TrEMBL record:
This is Putative IstB domain protein ATP-binding protein. GO terms for molecular function: ATP binding. The lineage of its organism: unclassified sequences, metagenomes, organismal metagenomes. Keywords: ATP-binding, Nucleotide-binding. Transmembrane segments: none annotated. SUPFAM superfamilies: P-loop containing nucleoside triphosphate hydrolases. GO terms for biological process: DNA replication. InterPro entries: P-loop_NTPase.
Length: 271
């Protein structure tokens, strides 16, 4: 095949690309010299990479919106955290480490659980903010790998309200609403379960709460999947709230990691 002029830069070049057609080598030409062809290919790869980055960002946004995190925490992350004391600084760093070490692109089987708690300064110490920071950082570390982080976030009262609501569905509503078994399957099998405000669900008869919590913790323990709890209960109080079996399994999965919040009321001082 004779030399040709590049349709883009007009340089004269010799077509050399071939393809096999019916067992014969046939010259394949796109009208571009090697330099322009490489430039076009590089630009195409760049555009594809930009599209992939945007797709990943959109997917992260969807994951965040669907996980159950309260909307007011969608913009609260580690960068907006204003720690002020040595105690809070240590807790903050423990949460950063937890998020940075969380397995990405795979099921986090065997990864440790974490308990964020405050007793003396129960309200407003920033536990939920730090839990949100962990979730944001896990999502941000995901770069589009095949396995995206599957995180579910419930406050303890909201989880039990959602489960109990299913008990009152009519037969028609049962076909169109999420069932209790579907809710429990989700919290048992997600990559990370965030259970905020543990201890806020108060019942005269603790049997239902403790049985449900045992089912969740036991299933996740069997699968090796982590739980992030926040609460205002010390170890003794948490054992009473969850029941001894659930407490034992949960703290075994923490592998010795619990972070106690110190300092004053973060929300008040932040303004």
């Amino acid at each position: 095949m004779p030399d040709q002029n590049c349709t883009q830069c007009t340089t004269t070049y010799t077509p050399c690309d071939t393809l096999t057609l019916y067992g014969r080598a046939v010259i394949k030409d796109v009208g571009l010299c090697p330099e322009c062809r490489n430039a076009v290919a590089a630009e195409r790869q760049k555009q594809e990479a930009l599209v992939a980055v945007q797709d990943t960002a959109n997917r992260r946004r969807t994951l965040l919106e669907d996980c159950g995190m309260p909307p007011e925490y969608h913009r609260r992350n580690f960068s907006t955290w204003k720690y002020r004391t040595p105690e809070l600084d240590k807790v903050y760093q423990a949460c950063v480490n937890y998020a940075e070490e969380f397995p990405i692109g795979q099921r986090p089987v065997g990864y440790r659980s974490l308990y964020l708690w405050s007793e003396n300064h129960a309200v407003g110490t920033g536990k939920t903010h730090l839990a949100a920071g962990i979730v944001h950082e896990i999502y941000n570390r995901w770069k589009g790998e095949d396995h995206s982080p599957f995180i579910l976030w419930y406050s303890e009262p909201r989880l039990f309200a959602a489960i109990q609501a299913t008990f009152n569905y009519t037969e028609e509503e049962q076909g169109t609403h999420v069932s209790a078994s579907t809710i429990l399957k989700g919290v048992a099998h997600c990559d990370l379960l965030v259970l905020d405000d543990t201890g806020k669900e108060r019942r005269a008869n603790k049997e239902f709460l403790q049985r449900t919590m045992f089912d969740i913790i036991d299933q996740r323990d069997g699968l090796g999947l982590p739980i992030l709890l926040t609460g205002n209960l010390n170890a003794t109080q948490l054992k009473i709230h969850l029941g001894e079996a659930s407490y034992s399994r949960f703290f075994a999965s923490c592998k010795g990691r619990a972070a106690e919040m110190g300092g004053g009321d973060y929300r008040q001082e932040k303004g």
